[in-house]
Amino acid sequence: MVQGENFPVGASVSVWVDGNQIDHGDLTVTSRDWGGPSIFEVTSPLDIVSGTFVRATIDGVERTTTVSGIRIENIEGNTISGVADGPDVTVVCNEVYRDLTVGPDLAWSVNMSQPPVAGMPVTTLGPGTRCSAWELDEDAAYGPSFTRVQRDIRDPRIAASTTDSFVTGWGFAPGVAVTITLDTVPVDDGSVTTDPDGNFWAGVDDGLLGDVEIGRGVGIEVVAGSDTRSVTTTNVAVTSIVGNVITGVGAPLTEVTVWVDDTEATATALPDANGDWAVDLSGVISLEPGHRGQAQQLDAEGGATWAAWRVANPAITVNPDGGWIEARDFAPGGTLSVTIDGAPIDGPIVTDEWGNAWIDVELELLPGIVVTVSDGASGKDVTISGIGVTSVAGNVITGTADGSLVHLWVNDSEVERQVAVVGGVWSVDVFVPGEEWEQETAQLGPGSSGGVQLVDDDGDATMADWGVPNPHFTVNMAWNGIEGWDWDGPVTVTIVDPVSEASRTFSGGDIQYPEGPGYFVLALDDVEPRWQLKPGHIVTVADATAPPKALTVAALTIDAWDFDADTMSGTSSLAGRITVDVDRPGAYGWAEQLTPGGSWAVDFLAGVEPFDLRVLDNAMVNLFDEDGDSTMIGPQPVAGPRFTVGLVNQEVVGCGWPDGALVTVTIQREGMVPFVRAVMSGPEIPETWMPLSGACNVYLDVAAGPLVMAGDVITMTDGTTTKTQVVPALEVNLADDVADELSGSTTMPEGSFLTVAAGWWWTGAPARDAVPEADGTWSVSFVDDEWGIQGSAGYAVQTDVDGDQAVVTAPAPDVLNDPMADRVWAIDFAAGPVDLTIERNGGVVLTRTTETRNVISGAWRYRDMWTQPVGSLARPAVALWDLAGVFDIQAGDVITVRDGVSERSIVVDDLTIDSVDVATGTVTGHAAGSVAFNLNEGGGWWGYGTNPTEDGAYSFVFDPAEFPFQGLEPGMTVIAIGQSWHTIVRWTIPIGFDFGGFLAPVDSRPTMNTVKAGRAVPVKFSLGGDFGLDIFADGYPASRRITSTGAQTDAVEITLAATNSGLSYDPVTGVYTYIWKTDKAWAGTCRQLVLRLADGSEYLADFKF
Question: What secondary structure, in 3-state letters, does 250-311 show?
């Protein structure tokens, strides 16, 4: 698995493992429900082992790392041991952390029951304990990364389901064969094995248990590797569900646990002497149609018997164009009676374990036809409506429908629309937000698809599909492979060499489908015998339905570039549309040209957004034919062979040299014998922290001497190409985060350029070009940047006229504080002890000393340390002082941190958050200077700041019209940052409801709603999200009598919630519906419906009967 944390929520992510993209193209950063750091994660279909190269882009910003060799080799007693590449390892068991130093033999070991320092927490290891070991990739390109391994101390358990006839187990050794016996008779098919997590599942439905039925009182034994576990099934079963009360039977006087799937709702009961039991989930959850779960009972050996239960919610969807009917949530395993206009469909039609059935229909399903489905106990019917899509033009989808409102959605997006039907026609532009607040938009293109349906009052629907087909493929010459998109199922790829008349067809296991059948990858280097793509080859791709598509592979080159004119040119053997994508950190350019073949040239100044082309930009060239298939080369740097000198950790790295070449590196210095080393170029080099461009294949570590110095002349040659660089006197001063400025000095030859960034390159930190003064000094201001410097490290890269570079970095020790939480953080200090001093009114009031922690990212234990208080810049937070209850940090306090090398003093800002109004998005508080704001820790900036009034009060509004954010919501954390960027305070919005008013057919006051007494009234409203069904205060909803003017005549007198009412929630529309059953005796009166919610808010609606 590849996982990332603390990136901006919503950021688009792509992940490659050893050059193979493993995500599905729709991976984004999401927030965690429990308030932890934002996260993305994707499971790799490829093995991730020591040396695996992982690359990820987050909103186009690249991160790379190489997996380390860390392993957990043994857990014995309370001691865990293993090996790692070094120098440091962090071990975590039961949330107890240990920071270790790897020994000379690369081994590490720690006894978790013994504290390394008196007072530190300890833990014991036993069955069920999960331990993790982390090793930092300090040289990762573009950002800090970890290799993490984990091992569980196994505690194997098994469970058997008597309702669904399956056996499952967890906690076993991974990858071992499993044998299952029922009453000593083997029943598995011999293919059951545990997965990588040590789990297995074997059932009748998946064919792994044949036709056996697991009954009550059956003795089941499971042998998995060296472990043997058994269970004797009990007679536990659910016999009835009435309201929130679940009753059943089981083994007498043995506890039964009942849970509701996909919720945290659980309850226990002890069966009586007859084995009868009951649980009442009232107060825990309100059971509604569609809820399901399990009842569990353990035997004396700890083996579990499960019995499934569910609350039925029958519904029908008919798709006339697809010719199918879907029945959902009928009786599980029941036989359905289905009729079309009274004529029965031949059966039998049997529902699956969840009561669902898919019915293909050969009859023409026309509007007006009535479809009925019954399982004998429940019956539903739907009248087919006329609905369809007539066109998709751009982003506008148009169709017809018989009803008044259709529900449309775009697949692979969050876009949904409720679209009004006017004169039988509906139309919607999905790129334009709808009337509802915060609606997502979509830009349609080839391959876009979705559905549209008419839903009746009973939840049954008529549906139609829509789509924009576009199967296409790209031949990638850089990695000798073919990628295809939007194909219908498995494909066959045929490659023909017209010159030799050789041909080869690839199918089946030759072709990978990492994102499902629509997307395929054919890596020809991985298929034996290997086929090398060459210009002139004819590639044909076909699937089961679409016409075959053919492409003649073009000969493409990038031959020349003009950095003054910002043009690029090359050759193409064929005609077509050339597109050139060029990028570098912080910039992106695109250009295109129709070429008749022979040559091509693009001008980056001629596009909509002119682009300044320069050496080392990465270029990717595609030649598209008439129907959208392409030949691609790149990405490759706009430069030939070159090298980069790292002036901090003394590295010389060559990029773009021929593999297998003997490259000679010479370092010349006046008065020194030239230093000469020969290095063989190769596809892989050691990890380096430097920002590099393109394929780097030459590496020389000169840290042991001679140390590279300014003025040295470094030459790299392979006998054909020779590159020379005079090392500049490049320096970066300590970052000035008060002035938001980086400064330094250099010597810069003509034609060189200097790029300066306000943080590590892997974070996507802001970057600027710097122009030195005549004396070589330079400074770059980031005050106008959204992020600024904010205490971050800085770096500078100087590039000469033909692409050779020198790189230097500067750390930025920093101190942060939260006076509302009384916390202090020390960031980027040296390892070892750090001293904290707090002064007030000129005198020292507190001193503390602590050891730094080897923490590299804001993802580390968010509960204990907020290491990413601003922006998306991940920095190592190495010390934390939590002074809550010990010392009250006050405005004006001077906080100083020293580590023996660096010293940093900051003054605590006068800053508070006093209130947050969710409805208006207003934050109020007090501050002595300007305040900036952030939503959710590390979640991205949405407020640029405000200034307080003369009395120090401020008021800031998160205005959705001004800032592209999702709006304040319960559970969010609002962060205010003081003017010095060192003081941070936080306010977490308590969970509550955002009542959006009554929806049709009920009008809010002062309108008097007219209703016939005795009818059921659907009362619809939105709370801004799905809060479950336990939303009303006790005793509510209720009603009371009023006058015709709305004046109250008596107190609340009738409780409705527990008697003749019902509540449901539609996750598609986000609307709650409460069915209010009125009384015929109310005829001729006026009453007021009172909705009092669990958060104490109250909403009224008036009715005349």
Answer: CCCCCCEEEEECCCCCEEEECCCCCCEEEEECCCCCCCCCCCEEEEEEECCCCCEEEEEEEC
Written as one letter, the residue type at 257 is T
Order of strands across the sheet that contains 237-242 = 237-242, 245-249, 276-280
Tell which residue, 8, 80, 66, has the closest CA to residue 40. Answer: 8
Residues paired with 571 in a beta bridge: 557
For Cα atoms 858, 110, 130, give the angle at the middle one, nearest 5 degrees.
60
Q: Which of 97-111, 330-344, 468-482, 856-870 has the lowest mean pLDDT?
A: 856-870
Q: Is the predicted pLDDT of residue 822 greater than 60, yes or no? A: yes
Each residue's pLDDT tens digit, 1026-1078? 777 878 887 889 888 888 766 554 444 444 543 435 888 888 888 999 999 88
585-589: which pairs have CB atoms within 8 A and are 24 or more residues apart?
A: 585/61, 585/691, 585/757, 585/761, 585/764, 585/767, 586/766, 586/767, 587/611, 587/612, 588/60, 589/613, 589/617
> Where is pLDDT greater, at 282 or 917?
282
In this model, does residue 938 exceed pLDDT 60? no
The sheet that has 1016-1021: what strands, in order across it?
Answer: 998-999, 1016-1021, 1071-1077, 1061-1066
Are the C-beta atoms of residues 924 and 951 closer than 8 Å to each other?
A: no
- CA 429, CA 415: separation in Å to the nearest integer? 11
In the structure encoding, which two tokens stand for residue 220, read together?
Answer: 């089941």
Note the pLDDT tens digit of each residue in 75-106: 989 999 999 997 899 999 999 999 999 999 99
Instruction: Return the percentage of the chain with pLDDT > 70, whole number.
Output: 87
- Percentages helix, strand, coil for the chain (3-state, rounded to 5) are 0, 45, 50
The CA distances from residue 875 to 39, 64, 763, 787, 1069, in Å, are 17, 17, 9, 14, 41
Q: In 3-state terms, what secondary structure has residue 681?
A: coil
What pLDDT does 299 receive?
A: 87
Q: Which residue has the tokens 């193979």?
A: 20
Per DSSP, the three-state class of 787 is coil
Q: Report the C-alpha gap between 983 and 338 in whole angstroms.
A: 68
* Contacts (Cβ under 8 Å, ≥6 apart) of 951: none
Residue 1055 parent element (H or E): strand 1054-1055
**Per-residue pLDDT band at 856 (split at 50, 70, 90):** very low
Reply yes or no on whether the pLDDT at 721 is more than 90.
yes
| pLDDT, tens digit, 9 for 90 and up, residues 465-504 | 998 878 999 999 988 999 998 888 899 999 999 999 999 9
Q: Which of 652, 754, 760 is nearest to 745 (CA)?
A: 754
Give the position of tokens 């950095």: 563
Residues written for the chain: 1105
Give the per-residue pLDDT at 92.
95
Q: From 472, 475, 471, 473, select the one nearest 631 (Cα to Cα).
A: 475
474: left (phi over 0), alpha (psi -120 to 50) or beta: beta
Contact status, residue 487 vs residue 546, Cβ threshold 8 Å:
yes
Residue 354's pLDDT is 75
- C-beta atoms surrounding 25 within 10 Å: 13
Reply yes or no on whether the pLDDT at 408 is more than 80: yes
- Asked if 880 contacts 815 with a C-beta cutoff of 8 angstroms, the reply is no
Q: How far is CA 298 from CA 126, 264, 634, 759, in A?
A: 21, 20, 60, 56
Alpha-carbon distances of 799 from 642, 771, 1056, rounded to whole Å: 10, 13, 76
d(CA 917, CA 927): 18
Token look-up 């392993």 returns 71
**Pairing between β-strand 1054-1055 and β-strand 1038-1042 as defined by DSSP bridges:** antiparallel
In three-state form (DSSP H/G/I as H, E/B as E, the rest C), the secondary structure along 875-902 is CCEEEEEECCCCCCCCCCCEEEEECCCC
